[in-house]
Structure formats: C-alpha cells, structure tokens
Amino acid sequence: MTRLDETPRIETHNATASAVELVGLSFAYPDGMPALRGIDLRVEPGEKVALLGPNGAGKSTLLLHLNGVFRGQGEVRIFAERLTEANLRLIRAKVGLLFSNPDDQLFSPTVLDDVAYGPLHMGLPREEVLERTRVALEQVGMQGFEDRVPHRLSLGQKKRVAIATVLSMGTPILALDEPSASLSPVARRELIDLLQSLPQTMLISTHDLALARDLLPRTVVLDEGRVVADGATADILEDADLLVAHGLEPLSAHRHQHEGAG
Amino acid sequence: MSAIAFITERYEARSSPVHVADARAKLLGAFGFIIAVTFTAEGAWLALALSAVPLVIVTFAAHLTPMFVVRRSFLALPFVAVALPLIFTRPGETLFTVPLTGWTGSREGIEAVATIMARSWIAVLAAVLLTATTPIVELLRGLRSLGVPRLLVATVSFTYRYFYVIGDEATRMMRARDSRSAALPGYRSGGSIRWRASVLGHMVGSLFVRSLERSERVYAAMQSRGFAGEPRFLDQPSLRPPEAVAAALLVGYAFAVQALAHGWLT
C-alpha cells in the first residue's frame, strides 16, 4: 500500500531544533472556561506521541494551537520558529491537522479536489499538485476514488481521504485528533498500519490506548488542561492507578482480545 | 459566547413583572400593538410618538436600558431599506433631483418612507422587548396554545434547535479549511479569487447536503420515539386576569391613538 520513498518532499529544518515546543501555553474559551493551564511540552523530530486524557482535558484544544487555529497565551514554536500572526500560513505548511470528524475536513465535490486543496493553496505548479495528490491517495490506499463524492464514502474511507488531504501538503508534523474514533475494527487496524508506515513527527490525541501502545512510543496524559504524566507509553499504560485517576481504562481486557485475534 | 449564540440568544434574564408575565399575554399584547401601529397614516407623527410611549414604559418595567433595546433593534433596519425607492416613485412636490439619473425625490415620497420606517421600527422594538423578556420555549408554547398552526411552531422550534448545530458545523469546516490554507516560501499562495470562491461555494453546498441528511436522521429518531407531528407540551394554566388586562390595555391604548389620529370617532 505504501512506499516511503514516495512520501512528498518534506522541507528540511534545523536538525537540532525540537519539532514542537510549547512554553507555558494557556487558553480559555470565550465563555471563560479555561482549557489549557500552562502546558510545557517538547516533541523532537520523528517522535510519535500519544495525547491521552478524559473528554474535556484539552487534547483537541492543544492540537488546534499547533497550527494557530487557536491562539492562547504562551509560546508555540515549530522547528524553533515562534508562531505569530505573520507566519501563520508558513507554519500551516509544517503542521498538518487532522480533525476528528472527517465531514468537517472534506468540503470539495470530489475526492481529488479535496486532496488537491492544500497544494493548490500553496500555489504549487499543476504537475506537482497532481503528483502529490496521486501519492497521498496511494499512501492511504484510496487510489481510484479520485472522482468520488466525499460524503458518499464510508467513515473509514472518509478518514483515509481526510488523512490524504493532510499528507498531500507534505507537512513534517502531523497532529491527528482521535483518528481511530468510531472506526470498525478492520478500518482501525488499517489506519494503524497506515500511520505506522509514515515517517512524520506525530501527535495523536486518542482514547484508543491500544493504538497508543502499538504506534506511539511516548505518551502525554492531559487532565483539566495540564500535563499530568509524560513518559514511555509502555510505562504509563502499566500504571493502572494513574490511568484510572484520569478517566482512562487500563488496557488488560483490550490486550487480551487483540492478541487473541492475532 | 459564540457569534451564533449572540444572534439567536435573545432572552435577557432579569426578575421583573414583564419577565414573569404569561407568554400568551405578552404575545397577544405585542401582536395587537403591532397591528394597531400598522394603521398609522403617513405623516401622523404625533400618533407615532404616542404609540411609542408604552414601549418606553415596558422597557423600564423590564429593567432593560433604552440603549440595549435600541441597539438590538438595528439588526432589523436593513430590511426596512426596501422602502427607499418610494422617495423617487411617489409623485408629488419635487424636492431634489439626483444628478445624472434624472430621478426626482418628492416631499410625499420622503414622508411615506419616513412613516414606513418609523412604523416598522416601533414594531421591531415591540418584538425586541417580547423576545428579550420571554424565553424561546415559553414563546413557542404560547404560540401553540394561542392556536398558531403546529407546523409553523414546529418549524420555528427546529430552526432554533438546529441553528447552533449547523453554525458549529460551519465553524469547524472553516477551521479545517484554514488549517490547510498554507503557504510555502517562494510561492504565491492562496490561489485565484475564482478558485477560492468556488471552494466556499462547495462548503456552503456540503453544509446544505449535510443539513438535509441530518434532518432525515433526526426525523427518523423522532418517529421512533412516537412523534406524530407536534412537540408535546404540558398543559398550561389559564391566563391570569391581571396579565390579560394589561395586554388588553396595551392593545386598547394603541388602537385608541389610531382612532383619534384618523378621526374614526367623529
């Protein structure tokens, strides 16, 4: 399904800089509800990080800060470059955001138009737009669906197309909001295989602890807008007390099922 | 508070006699008042001024500030602008001519437009007071128990219910689009205006399609809970006499002003 050598060209960056650096990031919604309370976080290039935590912990809000959709207090640095109003669009070429509901992400009349939107907006030449679109659809295994209407696809297919719309932008960082939510077991497994094959730096917000275990070596637990744990996924998933204290269910039952299935 | 909530959330919680009054009394009073005001003849400025008096009284009785009520009424002003061509089409004493077009504005035309605007504004102010002092659920319940067709009430109620849902959906779609609206150094980003407009058009289109599909799901869910065409409300107690009297006084006063202005009584 995927060949790494076909990954769209990724811009080169200062090799010593962190991919993502958040310094004292705080954010309150317009109604005054605090969502993030002083987040400090560094993610190195190539790292794959799970963001776990109960609903309302601030996971999605945090992801929406990485490309400046939300602008809280504190600093967001992407490859050492501080996110400001002026470089917003340049940063968005470095951080690709996948929204939890693919229907929000897909708005074009055909799959092809949707995957081409990002590269077209960047002003790339036509041939490169088509090449990136082709490669992205191939990476997610959706080649042949170019002329289909997005809202007529199954949820699993929509998710793949939505991921392709981000991959075609060639961003070195992927921020994915609950990519496996409400997928069937097969679609979920295919998604994990797909993400496994991608070399990008990843931050994935999820309730799917098995996905974190299989895909993401590092885990950050958020609760009430704060980082309450940050470490190796294997260690954090072993810590049943920590998980239960922050609205998560330890994995033992899942693991059993999973290994049984093969 | 989101922008959507700002537009749709009309109720201003206070504890005042106007707020606690029965929604039906307020509906009947406001409706009768608006009907009376529409009778105002062109140029009957005194009648218009007298008609506005109850609005001032209700504003203070409801613990609202005149500024608040007036500001909110401006939302409806663009709709009044459709009367403006009357300035040029009404025959009469010519006051001015628009250069190049040869259009002439008449004194009678200006008077007609000013009256229409004033009448509409008074009606809007009455509606602003009604919606600011009555929660939407009570308004709908009141409309239904006053015999407004259930289809109409149901339509208003669903519009209110799903306005937020669709507004939030639109917000999320625009966020997602913005997230993919990136730029690379050395390239001219953004695409052509035509292309951006077509993207926006497709977004609106898919919002329509998704709303339609949602309506089918919602309807199926309602049917499966036994919905037969009307939201069920608990029975309402009968109208309290003092409130009914207050509404009747308001409507009576507004019609009395008209009767005097038109000389109906002589």
Task: Summarize the topology.
The complex is a heterodimer of chains A (262) and B (266).
Chain A: E1 20-28, E2 34-43, E3 48-52, H1 59-66, E4 73-78, E5 81-82, H2 88-92, E6 95-98, H3 102-105, H4 111-122, H5 126-139, H6 155-167, E7 173-177, H7 185-196, E8 201-205, H8 209-215, E9 218-223, E10 226-232, H9 233-238, H10 240-245, H11 252-261
Parallel strand pairs in A: 3-8, 3-9, 6-7, 7-8
Antiparallel strand pairs in A: 1-2, 1-4, 4-5, 9-10
Chain B: H1 3-8, H2 17-20, H3 23-38, H4 45-61, H5 66-73, H6 77-80, H7 86-89, E1 94-97, E2 104-106, H8 107-133, H9 136-145, H10 150-179, H11 193-223, H12 241-262
Antiparallel strand pairs in B: 1-2
Helix pairs in contact in B: 3-8, 3-12, 4-8, 4-12, 5-8, 9-10, 10-11
Task: Describe it.
The complex is a heterodimer of chains A (262) and B (266). With 262 residues, chain A is α/β, with parallel strands linked by helices. Chain A has two domains: 13-94 and 171-182 and 192-262, P-loop containing nucleotide triphosphate hydrolases (Rossmann fold), CATH 3.40.50.300; 102-163, no CATH class. Chain A has helices at 59-66, 88-92, 102-105, 111-122, 126-139, 155-167, 185-196, 209-215, 233-238, 240-245, 252-261, and strands at residues 20-28, 34-43, 48-52, 73-78, 81-82, 95-98, 173-177, 201-205, 218-223, 226-232. In chain A, a hairpin with a 2-residue loop joins strand 9 (218-223) and strand 10 (226-232). In chain A, helix 5 (126-139) packs across helix 6 (155-167). Chain B is mainly α. In chain B, 67% of the residues lie in helices and 3% in strands. Chain B has twelve helices and two strands, in the order αααααααββααααα. Chain B has helices at 3-8, 17-20, 23-38, 45-61, 66-73, 77-80, 86-89, 107-133, 136-145, 150-179, 193-223, 241-262, and strands at 94-97, 104-106. Chain B has a two-stranded antiparallel ribbon with strand order 1-2. In chain B, a hairpin with a 6-residue loop joins strand 1 and strand 2. Chain B is flat and about 80 Å long. The model of chain B has no long low-confidence stretch (mean pLDDT 85). The A-B interface holds A 11, 30-31, 64, 67, 69, 89-90, 92-93, 96-97, 99, 101, 103-109, 113, 117-118, 120-124, 151, 165-166, 169, 171 and B 1-2, 169, 172-173, 175-185, 187-191, 195, 199, 202-203, 205-206, 209-210, 213.
